[in-house]
């Protein structure tokens, strides 16, 4: 039987994390190990994890981001348990009981090692279009790494999600890096919805959309630099103009939103990586 480590990254969402863990307990095929990367929460998350023995956790003491949490979590799980697969998860997604079993069954059905995710996209004219089908595996340009299954062999060859991205676009970059190294990326389609994602970080909170817009604009320039083509450049310009126009017309804080998107574009051009805007305060980190 394959050995699977679940990596959960959490930050300041204790009640949401508890709900997530209830869904993990109900899995028909439970992960062999669970490692929670605790990104410096101040809402009692660390105290809660300290007082339980069911799951392992890593206290980071600061918010190192989604990609940073996945990076250190995968490395620690591999060092500690020597697993065959990593099941990656955000704390605000709630998998149905058959998710891990379904992912492992799908992995066995294909000969090559591949990333298998539950939400996938194909780029058309530079715009990511969500893919759906009734059942089975379909190849895609990238999947959300949230609830994706990643084989250890891929990590050994490709590495982990890039911690310099902090958050946003790490899914796309990681999948493209995997493809460049000969791995496949598949979307697992089922008739029933396997995961309920709250997407708490991308709901209509003005502050959340501001800093996410900054990192989205910045990080896609990193991808563009690594995989440049005129088609990708035109697609990037197209998307950023759409975001800016939408913010100016419909945004709650249009001036601030556009300002931070332009800051992200500039920081991408000058290659300013890592955590450069604090999500809680929106202040620059030098």
The parts where pLDDT drops under 50 for at least 5 residues are none
Overall mean confidence score, pLDDT: 93
Name of the top-level CATH class of the largest domain = Alpha Beta
Instruction: Specify the CATH architecture of the largest domain.
Output: Alpha-Beta Complex
Strand tally is 13
Helix-strand string: EHEHEHEEHEEEEEEHHEEHHH
How helix-rich are the residues, as a percent range?
A: 40-55%
Task: State the end-to-end distance.
Answer: 47 Å
What is the C-alpha radius of gyration, as a whole number of Å? 18 Å
Q: Which oligomerization state do the chains in this entry correspond to?
A: single chain
Largest sheet: 5 strands, mixed
| Class based on secondary structure composition and strand pairing | alpha/beta
Strand content: 15-25%
Would you kindly provide a written description of the structure presented here, covering whatever features stand out?
This protein has two domains: 4-197, Spore Coat Polysaccharide Biosynthesis Protein SpsA, Chain A; 204-269. Helix content is 42%, strand content 20%. It has nine helices and 13 strands. The protein has helices at 14-25, 45-50, 65-81, 99-108, 152-158, 170-180, 206-226, 230-250, 254-269, and strands at residues 4-10, 33-38, 56-59, 85-90, 93-95, 114-117, 120-124, 127-131, 136-139, 142-143, 149-151, 184-189, 195-197. The longest helix is centred in the last third of the chain and has 21 residues, at 206-226. The chain starts with a strand and ends in a 17-residue tail after the last helix. The mean pLDDT is 93. This is Glycosyl transferase. Belongs to the glycosyltransferase 2 family. Keywords: Glycosyltransferase, Transferase. Residues 6-117 form the Glycosyltransferase 2-like domain.
């Amino acid at each position: 039987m394959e050995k699977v480590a679940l990596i959960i990254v959490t930050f300041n969402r204790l009640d949401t994390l508890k709900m997530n863990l209830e869904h993990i307990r109900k899995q028909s095929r439970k992960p062999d190990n669970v490692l929670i990367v605790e990104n410096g929460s101040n809402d009692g998350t660390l105290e809660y994890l300290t007082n339980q023995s069911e799951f392992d956790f890593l206290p980071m003491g600061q918010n190192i981001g989604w990609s940073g949490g996945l990076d250190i979590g995968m490395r620690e799980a591999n060092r500690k348990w020597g697993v065959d697969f990593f099941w990656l998860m955000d704390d605000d997604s709630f998998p149905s009981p058959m998710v891990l079993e379904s992912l492992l069954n799908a992995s066995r059905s294909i000969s090559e090692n591949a990333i298998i995710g539950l939400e996938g996209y194909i780029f058309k004219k530079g715009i990511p279009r969500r893919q759906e089908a009734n059942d089975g595996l379909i190849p895609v340009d990238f999947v959300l790494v949230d609830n994706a299954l990643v084989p250890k062999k891929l990590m050994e060859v490709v590495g982990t999600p890039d911690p310099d991205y902090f958050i946003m676009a790490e899914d796309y970059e990681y999948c493209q890096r995997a493809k460049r190294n000969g791995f496949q990326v598949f979307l697992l389609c089922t008739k029933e919805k396997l995961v309920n994602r709250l997407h708490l970080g991308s709901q209509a909170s003005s502050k959340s959309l501001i800093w996410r817009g900054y990192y989205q604009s910045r990080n896609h320039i990193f991808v563009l630099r690594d995989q440049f083509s005129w088609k990708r450049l035109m697609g990037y310009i197209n998307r950023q103009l759409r975001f800016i126009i939408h913010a100016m017309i419909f945004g709650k804080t249009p001036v601030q939103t556009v300002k931070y998107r332009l800051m992200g574009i500039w920081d991408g051009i000058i290659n300013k990586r890592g955590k450069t805007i604090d999500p809680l305060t929106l202040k620059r980190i030098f």
